[in-house]
Amino acid sequence: MFLKKPETIELIESHRSIRKFLDRPIEPDVLESILHAARWAPTSHNMQAYSVVIVKNPETKRKLSEVCGDQRYVRECPVFLVVCADFYKLRLASEMHGETLAVEELENVLVGSVDAALVAQNLLLGSRAYGLGGVMIGGIRNDAQAVGELLKLPEYVFPVMGMCLGYPDPDKEPWQKPRMPVQAVFHEETYHTEAVPAALTEYDEIMSDYYTRRTDGRRTSGWTEQLAAYISKPRRKELTEFIKKQGFNLK
Ligand SMILES: Cc1cc2nc3c(=O)[nH]c(=O)nc-3n(C[C@H](O)[C@H](O)[C@H](O)COP(=O)(O)O)c2cc1C
């Protein structure tokens, strides 16, 4: 049977991260519409344990781009969002009602991060619906302390990801990066470890071919080789300390 894909599925499946933007601002009403729509993400226990700092100031973007590992698109995009996990509002609620704020388990760090991620994906998809594009920026966690100071993040707030938004440069449309075969990510009824190695081998071939074509042979490695190297080093060790300093007295 031929299934006609709805527009939303087409939009999701045409995703690619955008790192080259036109020198064109985002219209205020468009940005407002995207931001307001993103709030309709589902949220754990209706906590809405997130907040978004909207940065347009060129100097702030420049500083953030440095903090994010000198990623040029952070300063080049017209709007940079910093999506945070946020228990500041929960803290106020606790104070108002004489309750304690129990945030010493990993659970609430996850809750805030998941809420932030759901809103972030809504922001990206909402942007795409208006012809905008963007890229999420984990580099915002490189130096969370500096980000906290620059953006005046109060206690119980930490950055989860940044997001560059803008009108994509049509002359620089990026290739779409292939995803893993479905056998590596979906499991019927129970997890099927036996299906994973073959799926990864298949994906290595797909990614090796993708990089070979995209870089005219300068890069040929597959996914497992690349990610094994990446995951071999501990990253952002200071982040745990910053999260604790913000008030999450993790055990
Ligand atoms: C939470 C998160 C953080 C990311 N951080 C960065 C980043 O700091 N810099 C960057 O260039 N891309 C970043 N990306 C984009 C990923 O590299 C990209 O999504 C992935 O390689 C797949 O490519 P695609 O989005 O074009 O399909 C991030 C993506 C996510 C979801």
UniProtKB/TrEMBL annotation:
It comes from the Bacteria. Pfam families: Nitroreductase (PF00881). GO terms for molecular function: FMN reductase (NADPH) activity. Its EC number is 1.5.1.38. It is an enzyme of class 1 (oxidoreductase). Residues 12-70, 72-167 form the Nitroreductase domain. InterPro entries: Flavin_OxRdtase_Frp (IPR016446), Nitroreductase (IPR029479), Nitroreductase-like (IPR000415). The keyword GTP-binding does not apply. Keywords: Flavoprotein, FMN, NADP, Oxidoreductase. Belongs to the flavin oxidoreductase frp family. This is Oxygen-insensitive NADPH nitroreductase.
